[in-house]
């Protein structure tokens, strides 16, 4: 048991240091490596990824950390510090056992084996400061941290885009979540001080410098998405129906002009609205890259605001709490724009705030949101960080 002095020191440690110390305490010897993979916030480009469109996320300074050491046998031995849970599985006989967080790591091992990569055993201590269920992609961070761990002990080179594909395959085919590629891509390939424009069809990326004097603030509504799989899958099917209507592989291939000309009374009204959001959101995302290059934060804020209205009214994936949070944010004059971020139905909003006003903004928004909803929000002032990294101890 820790002494009070140790607890105090633990609280002052970085997650990197905590992972090393807790690994040694749990396994009885020091780790060989520490890997880190970040969560993400998507600035704009929501529900466009599975329509082969464009997204503009950034990797944030909240991450999954794994301190690890090669294991002599083909076994992976794990301890999740924050959950106080342990697990072990064999790489020679991977079985889906519905073990929640463990299945993400098994899924990575399975996807690596499917792709012909070697997978050697390891023991690892996992810790994270990404809030679970907030829409900041804790699952993709766990996947990419696990992939980086397997690369470290198995000797294969780290290729960010290929490992993002491995992560997506693991989540789709092992975990069973039919996700797009955005979360894995940004966790693998993010870069400090930049957002990353991702073409979700070609997986081409473009680093986009964040404007100076602008801070990204994540506003956690203290609500969680709950059972939204059916709603998410329904919207995917509606987008596919719209693509069939226009005779294209995906809505990414429909221009605004073509939509305006061809979307007639024979298109189901709900499908019409879903398509209008996706087509408009792709346009807004590319415009955002352009205005960021011009350092036009005011215009960027307008695009962010328009994205939320479209997600709320056309795609219908917001919630009363998200709408209230987004309404609270622009009451501060130094907030350029705000919108829900992530899949929706709860979780987080993202706001663009002038750096000098961040403290006042967070205090005021927190108070106003709590007054309006009775809920205490969590607010995270974020900086853009690098994607998955490896440190040898």
Description:
By secondary structure, this protein is an alpha+beta fold. The chain has a domain at 4-208 and 385-392: Ribosomal Protein S5, domain 2. 43% of the residues lie in helices and 23% in strands. It contains twelve helices and twelve strands. The protein has helices at 4-12, 15-27, 101-114, 138-154, 160-175, 182-189, 229-246, 256-262, 269-293, 297-313, 320-328, 358-373, and strands spanning 33-44, 54-70, 75-80, 85-90, 122-128, 194-199, 205-209, 214-220, 335-341, 348-354, 378-382, 389-392. Strands 1, 2, 3, 4, 5, 6, 7 and 12 form an eight-stranded mixed β-sheet that branches. Strands 9-10-8-11 form a four-stranded antiparallel β-sheet. Helix 4 (138-154) crosses helix 6 (182-189), helix 5 runs antiparallel to helix 6 and helix 11 packs antiparallel against helix 12 (358-373). The longest helix has 25 residues, at 269-293. It is globular, with a radius of gyration of 21 Å. Mean pLDDT is 93; it is low at 1-10.
CATH level 3 topology of the domain at 4-208 and 385-392:
Ribosomal Protein S5, domain 2
Number of E-type strands: 12
Structural class: alpha+beta
Tally of separate helices: 12
Strand content: 15-25%
pLDDT < 50 runs, ≥5 residues: 1-10
Mean pLDDT: 93
Span of the ends, CA to CA: 25 Å
Using the alpha-carbon principal axes, give the shape: globular
Taken in chain order, the helices and strands follow as: HHEEEEHEHHHEEEHHHHHEEHEE
Radius of gyration computed on alpha carbons? 21 Å
Largest sheet: 8 strands, mixed
Q: What portion of residues is helical?
A: 40-55%
- The CATH architecture of the domain at 4-208 and 385-392: 2-Layer Sandwich
The level-1 CATH class of the domain at 4-208 and 385-392: Alpha Beta
């Amino acid at each position: 048991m820790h002494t009070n002095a140790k607890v105090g020191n633990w609280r002052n440690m970085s997650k990197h240091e905590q992972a090393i110390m807790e690994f040694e305490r749990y396994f009885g010897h020091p780790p060989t490596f520490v890997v880190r993979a970040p969560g993400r916030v998507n600035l704009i480009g929501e529900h466009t990824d599975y329509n082969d469109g464009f997204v503009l996320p950034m990797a944030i300074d909240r991450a999954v950390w794994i301190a690890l050491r090669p294991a002599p046998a083909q076994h992976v031995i794990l301890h999740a510090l924050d959950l106080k849970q342990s697990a072990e599985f064999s790489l020679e006989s991977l079985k889906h056992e519905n073990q929640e967080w463990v299945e993400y790591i098994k899924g990575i091992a399975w996807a690596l084996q499917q792709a012909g990569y070697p997978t050697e055993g390891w023991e690892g201590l996992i810790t994270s400061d990404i809030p679970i269920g907030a829409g900041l992609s804790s699952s993709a961070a766990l996947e990419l941290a696990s992939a980086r761990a397997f690369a470290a002990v198995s000797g294969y080179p780290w290729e960010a885009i290929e490992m993002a594909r491995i992560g997506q395959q693991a989540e789709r085919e092992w975990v069973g979540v039919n996700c797009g590629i955005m979360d894995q891509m940004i966790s693998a390939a993010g870069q400090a001080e930049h957002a990353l424009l991702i073409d979700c069809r070609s997986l081409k990326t473009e680093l986009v410098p964040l404007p100076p004097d602008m801070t990204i603030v994540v506003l956690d509504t203290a609500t969680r998405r709950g059972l939204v799989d059916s709603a998410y899958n329904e919207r995917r099917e509606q987008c596919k129906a719209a693509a069939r209507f226009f005779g294209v592989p995906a809505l990414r291939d429909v221009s605004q002009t073509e939509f305006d000309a061809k979307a007639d009374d024979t298109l189901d009204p709900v499908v019409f609205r879903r398509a209008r959001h996706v087509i408009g959101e792709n346009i807004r995302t590319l415009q955002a890259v352009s205005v960021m290059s011009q350092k036009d934060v005011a215009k960027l804020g307008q695009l962010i605001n328009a994205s939320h209205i479209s997600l709320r009214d056309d795609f219908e994936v917001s919630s009363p709490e998200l709408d209230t949070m987004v309404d609270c944010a622009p009451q501060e004059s130094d907030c350029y724009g705000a919108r829900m971020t992530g899949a929706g139905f709860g979780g987080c909003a993202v706001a663009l705030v002038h750096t000098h006003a961040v403290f006042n903004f967070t205090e005021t928004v927190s108070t106003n949101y709590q007054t309006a909803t009775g809920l205490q929000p969590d607010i995270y002032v974020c900086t853009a960080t690098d994607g998955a990294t490896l440190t040898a101890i």
